[in-house]
Amino acid sequence: MKKLTKTLYFNLALLMITGCTYNTNQESITASSENRSVSESTEEDATKTSESMSISEVEETDTDDAGDTSSEDSGNNGLEDGPPGEHSDSDTGDPEEVETRTQYSNEQIEYARVWLQLGANQIIDGLYVEHIPAGTPLNPNDDTSVSYPKAVIQLAGSRLVDGSVTYSSNGDGTINVYNVPLRWDGQYPAGKKFYTDIIKNTQLVSIEQGDDEKIIELIKLLEVNVQ
Question: What distance lies between CA 139 and its chain's CA centroid?
């Protein structure tokens, strides 16, 4: 009986020791598991933070690159376009065209344009301009001649073959052309009707702008005589 009782106490003590050891191991396992979880959570948070920082740095780099690109583009545009108000050489007018517009009078340009359009001969040594006042007879050598009702201009070359143009200007780009010769030849007196018909049958002509280079050449040949 005493032996059985000792055996029972021994087993009970052993069971208690085993239970304590088991609990201790369980607590150790649990603590280890919790530590591992905390460590893994910490590592995961660190990884996420690192990734977030990397993404942020990439975005900042992209933004800086975009800013640098815009700045470079802006600088290039300024160099290529040049300062405001500057024009290329192609915008500069031809010197002869500028000369036509700025160095000659409207009257000189008109004489040249009329001859360029109506002159019989364009290859001339000189372009002679005579201002004839109103009231001057068409043919001073004929007593039956009527007079010009208004002042006229007579253009002529240095030779008879060059021809002549006698006209009055209307001031609106048109002229009235009189069909009179530079030199009157024929039988006189011709009669008043003959001269009256010339005045009545003046031709209204619209003068074209003409070629500037040719106009300049003619202007340089002008010799003006005012009566």
Answer: 56
